[in-house]
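Hey, I was hoping to borrow your eyes for a little while. For a while now I've been wondering how a particular protein folds. The fold is given in discrete form, as structure tokens running alongside the sequence. Could you read through the record and tell me how the tokens relate to the sequence? Take your time with it, there's no hurry, and the full record follows here:
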Amino acid sequence: MCTSIACGKNASEDSMVLIARNEDFPTNNWNKYMKFRKKPPYTKGQDKWQLGNGLTVQTPKNCFSYCSMPDAQSIDEAVCDVGDHFLFEARGINEKDVAITATNSLQTNDMAMAADPFISSPGIEESIIATLLLPQAKSARHAVNLLGQYVTKYGANEANGVLMADENEVWYLEIGSRQHWIAVRIPDDKYLVVSNSMRIHDVDLTDTEHVVTSEGLYDFVVEHSLLKNPKPEKFDFAAAFGQQEKSESGEIDPYYNIDRIWLAQNILSPSQKIKVRQKTYELFLKPDKPITPADVMKVLRSTFKGTPLEHEPDATRPIGVVRTLQSHIMTVNSQLPDGLKGVIWQAMGSPICSIYVPFYALVDEIPEAYACGDSASFSLDSIWWTWRGLFALADQMDALDNLTNYCKTWENYFIKSHKAMNKILEQFSSVNISDAQLIAKTYSKNNLSLIADSTVEKYQSMMAILSDNQKDK
């Protein structure tokens, strides 16, 4: 139920790679919180590692730290990593400046499932993918190879799309069945948009520099007649494995996914005058101008208002929706030194009414408001719950414009201050990298703390206005 965007380094501002995603789910399913894992959830010397869904794998050789975003039914469950507990670490950047966001849930067709059905026992699934890869991936391509090997060895439980990036490359991998998958490198000068249908089509399987697949993928498709006239130089993975027309309720909805693809491409490439509701959209597209985090924020908040779909009664699934649990934009900037390249712009709750706060991924002290929460009850101690409450209050008070203006004011400040901070870090890092890292950590913690405090104050002021306006009935 998610929407993702990714772009190569020559398609973005400041030659940085970018991956982003709205994590959508039924509202108040559970809270989101932030965690810096100085050590992975395994220790050296262990022979085996049991992940949150019960899958047991060989303990990785690498032990990289990373900044993650788990979710859980309570904070106690969120910090567990064995047995029946699930981490669902939605995104993260590790100390090697490798960024991963997981996942876009995808849909499969009956023929592919008959040929290679998903396993029912613990396997590769959304709940463990980021947790599995972030502690050990040395590059985006390494992350692709690792995930592919895990799917081949243990089997997949479900279809997913995963984005992986480092300072030079962005890769997108789709899992189509129990053991078959494909990954493509996004061209440096283009971007990719993903909703909840498989997207990889018309790729050249012989181009092993930019396309990687499970072993025997093409022969498997031919053997089971998953494509009518398959061509390795123009291979359509989405048609072979995917199903396009169902919404998250399971009902037939031919526009549920393609409307979002069009919406994002229309915003980022308006000069191309892309037609609505085409059967297939270009996998990779050039933007009209270098993509900035602000551009991606606009896309992740976008609705059909002001578009040809605004008055279409069956246009029911835009990108910006209330039920988004959290939204993130991750950039990796090659102009900064190692360890400082990765930045996360994090919005708690729906980005329709929330603030994208920038922080460097090496921040190892998370303010308490971002590190706590319980799905069972509302609390202003939790930044996630505070934003959920603010959105609900503004909606009831008919004050959404007031809240969105508040968000824009803060974001404009962060966009300007972050550019200045990058320049400061470039200067300091050439003299003393330790000082630069300390500055980045302090800046990051201060940004998060500022919004944690300001959001509570905003909630309290809006609640005071609401109570003052109560009338006797």
